[in-house]
Amino acid sequence: MELHQFRHSAFCEKVRLILASKGLEVTLVEVTPGLGQLELFRLSGQRQVPVLVEGATVIADSTVIALHLEEAHPTPALLPADPVARARVLLLEDWADTALSAGCRRALLQAATADPVLRTALLPEAAPSMLRQLVSALPGGLMAPMGEAITEALAPCEARQLQRNLEQLVVLIEAGAYLVGDRLSLADLAVVAQLSLLRFPATAGAPLAGRGLPGFSDNPLLAPLFQWRDRILAELGRA
Ligand SMILES: N[C@@H](CCC(=O)N[C@@H](CS)C(=O)NCC(=O)O)C(=O)O
Fold it and tell me: Of all atoms in ligand 1, which is nearest to the CA of residue 37?
C-alpha cells in the first residue's frame, strides 16, 4: 500500500491514523507541490492528497479512503455496527473534515504570520528547500508566496466559534474516553488529525513537534483535549 501525502496535512494524518489503528503497513510517498500534483492527477484524476494506492485500486479523499479500508480491513472496526452510533460517527467525522478543519487551518495560517517555524508547516515537505527558506525568512506581514494566507486568516468571530466548539469537545471527552460509545472510532481519528494543526504531534518531527498555536494550545480550558489527543496517539503507538 502507498499513501501519497503532504506530511503536515491533517487529512493525510487522518489516513495515517486509520492505517495505524488497523495495524496496516504503508509506504509514504511525499508529493511535490505543483509537478507532483500533476502526476497525482494522472494517477487519481484529481490533485489533492491524500491518495491511497492498493494494488490496482487508487483512492482519493480521506473519507472515501476510510470507507474503503473499513470494508477491506474490517478489524478492528472504526465504524460501529449499530446504525445510530454509526450515524453519529459519520456526522462527527464530516464536521471534523469541514468546519473544524477550516477553523484549525485558518488559525494556523494566522499564527504562521508571526511564527516562521509554523510557516514551514504550511509548505508540503517536498517543497523545494529554497522556497522553504524564503517562506520562513519572510517578515510576518509579507506572506505573498503563500497567497491564500492573507485572505484566509481567522476572523475574530470564527476564532470564538472554534474556541466554543473545542470546549464542546472537552465536554464530550470528559464524559467518556471516546467521542462515540466506548471504543475508538473514525470520529476520534478525524478530530485528532485536525487538532494536529493547533498543536503539532511528536510525529511532526523537529522543529514542529509540540509547537502549538497561542490562544489554543496554551489555553488551560483546552488542556484536557490535547491530553486526550496525546492518549489516543499513544494508544496507536504514535506518541
Ligand atoms: N476532502 C479531502 C480534502 C483533502 C485536502 O484538502 N487536501 C489538501 C491538503 S490538506 C490538498 O491536497 N491541497 C492541495 C490542493 O488543493 O491543490 C479529504 O478528505 O481528503
Answer: 17
Is any atom of ligand 1 closer than 6 Å to the C-beta of 48? yes
Taking the centre of ligand 1 as the mean of its atom positions, its distance from the CA of residue 11, in whole angstroms, is 7
Residue-range domain boundaries for the chain: 2-72, 83-235
- Written as tens digits, the pLDDT of the chain (239 aa) is 999 999 999 999 999 999 999 999 999 999 998 899 999 999 999 999 999 999 999 999 999 999 999 999 999 999 999 999 999 999 999 999 999 999 999 999 889 888 888 887 777 666 666 666 666 565 554 444 454 555 567 889 999 999 999 999 999 999 999 999 999 999 999 999 999 999 999 999 988 998 999 999 999 999 999 999 999 999 999 98
The answer to whether 22 and 73 have CB atoms below 8 angstroms apart is: yes
Ligand 1 neighbourhood includes 226 CB (under 6 angstroms): no
pTM over 0.90: yes
How far is the centre of ligand 1, averaged over its atoms, from the C-alpha of 194 (Å)? 13
Q: What CATH number should be reported for the domain whose range is 2-72?
A: 3.40.30.10
Architecture of the domain whose range is 83-235: Up-down Bundle (1.20)
Nearest protein CA to atom 13 of ligand 1, as residue? 48
Question: Cα of 217 to ligand 1 centre, how many Å?
Answer: 24
Would you state the cell numbers that stand for residue 81, as one nine-digit string?
455496527
